[in-house]
Amino acid sequence: MASMTVVATTAVPDHLRGALTRWLLEVTPELYVGTVSARVREELWTSVTACVGNGTAVLVYPVDNEQGFELRTAGEQRRSPLDFDGLTLITFRGEGQANAKRS
Contact at 8 Å (CB) between 31 and 58? Predict the structure, then answer.
């Protein structure tokens, strides 16, 4: 069954943006939304993770859990999803925090 899928990207190659627009609408620059099957979503995410390069990407799609969605990330990001007793929380990696711990 098809479901709503959202992909947000930052600084990804143009060819990847073009590939995403074949299946999803680019509603604002580098934000893609559409209704696709789980198989298409997985194939798109495989392409994104293979081509993200120095950029970043986030995939959000509905699942049957407490929050009603799951998210995945690709690329070097400051924010990372963290599973906390079945809930997804976001952790921040800050260079300033790492330097403060060394002092």
Answer: no
Q: Is the pLDDT of residue 36 over 60?
A: yes
* Nearest partner of 35 among 2, 72, 1, judged by Cα: 2
Q: Is the pLDDT of residue 100 over 60?
A: no
Whether residue 96 is predicted with pLDDT greater than 90 in this model: the reply is: no
- Residue 30: closest CA among 5, 47, 13, 53: 13
Q: How many CB atoms lie within 10 A of CB 10?
A: 15
- SS3 for 52-95 is CCCCEEEEEEECCCCCCEEEEEEECCCEEEEEECCEEEEEECCH
